[in-house]
Amino acid sequence: MSSARDEARYRLAADNRRARYDFEIGQTYEAGIMLTGTEIKSLRGGRSTIGDSYAAEKNGEVWLYNAYIPEYLQANQFNHETRRPRKLLLHKKEIGRLMVAVQREGMTIVPLKIYFNEKGRAKVELALARGKKLHDKRETEKARDWNREKSRIMRARG
C-alpha cells in the first residue's frame, strides 16, 4: 500500500480505516488543523481517533467535528476539550470546491488520517466521499475475500 519513503515522510497520529469501507473515496485534500499546545502533545502520543468525525462548512470556513483527541495528562488546568470543533486550514479555492461538491452532488467531507508532515506540523487528509449502500459494502467485502483466497491459492501452488 504505502512505501517506506511515504512512511518516512510523515508520522501517523490517527487513521480512519472504516472510511474506505463506508464511503466511496473521491478526491483528497491536505489541510492544516488549528490545535492548542496540549492537543499537539496528546496527538504525538497517538491515542486519538477520527472514526466518527466529519468536516463541514461554517461561515465560509471548514471545521472538523467529533474528532477525539484525549486530554494531555501532564497539563492539569490548561487542558483542552476532547471533542471540540477544530478549524481546518485550506485555500479559498479548495473550500469553494468542497462546498460545491457537498451542496450540489450530495457528497461528504471525511477525514482519512491525521499525521505530522516532515516539518512536524499536524495535517489532516480529507476526502470527498459518497456513502456506500449495503449491497456495495457486501460487494467490496466479497472482492476482498476473493483476493485473499486467490493469493492463498497462488502461494500454495508455488
Automatic annotation (TrEMBL):
Please give the coiled-coil regions recorded for this protein.
Answer: none
- Show the segment(s) annotated as Disordered: 136-158
Under the heading Pfam families, the entry gives:
SmpB (PF01668)
Main subcellular location of this protein, as a coarse class: cytoplasm
Q: Which SUPFAM superfamilies match?
A: Small protein B (SmpB)
**Bias regions of kind Basic and acidic residues — which residues?**
136-152
Q: Which UniProt keywords apply?
A: Cytoplasm, RNA-binding
Localization in the cell? Cytoplasm
Please report which protein family the annotation says this sequence is part of: Belongs to the SmpB family.
- PANTHER family under this entry? SSRA-BINDING PROTEIN, TMRNA-BINDING COMPONENT OF TRANS-TRANSLATION TAGGING COMPLEX
- What does the UniProt record say this protein does? Required for rescue of stalled ribosomes mediated by trans-translation. Binds to transfer-messenger RNA (tmRNA), required for stable association of tmRNA with ribosomes. tmRNA and SmpB together mimic tRNA shape, replacing the anticodon stem-loop with SmpB. tmRNA is encoded by the ssrA gene; the 2 termini fold to resemble tRNA(Ala) and it encodes a 'tag peptide', a short internal open reading frame. During trans-translation Ala-aminoacylated tmRNA acts like a tRNA, entering the A-site of stalled ribosomes, displacing the stalled mRNA.
Please identify the protein, giving its name as recorded. SsrA-binding protein
Q: Which organism is it from?
A: Kaistia dalseonensis
